[in-house]
Amino acid sequence: MQKYVCSFCGYEYDPEIGDPDSGIAPGTAFEDIPDDWKCPVCGVGKENFEPA
Questions:
Q1: Which residue, 1, 27, 38, 48, could crosslink 44 as a Cys pair with Cβ 3.0–4.6 Å?
Q2: pLDDT of amino acid 34
Q3: By CB neighbour count within 10 A (0-12 exposed, 13-18 middle, 19+ buried), where does 44 fall?
Q4: In b/e form, how buried is each residue of 7-43, taking b as 16+ CB within 10 angstroms?
Q5: What pLDDT sits at residue 14?
Q6: 8-43 per-position pLDDT tens digit
C-alpha cells in the first residue's frame, strides 16, 4: 500500500501502521481514511498529503 506524506510537516502516513490514536486501524489505505481526518502532528486536512 502507498505511503503518504504531509506537505506541511513531513508526517508520513504508513497504511501498515495506520493512526490508532485517531481511530484509523492498521491496514487502512489512505484513500479509505475519512475525509475529515487531520494530520496527527500539525492538524492540516487530508487534502494536504502527497504520495511518498
A1: 48
A2: 97
A3: middle
A4: eeeebebebeebbeeeebeeebebeebeeebebeeee
A5: 98
A6: 999 999 999 999 999 999 999 999 999 999 999 999
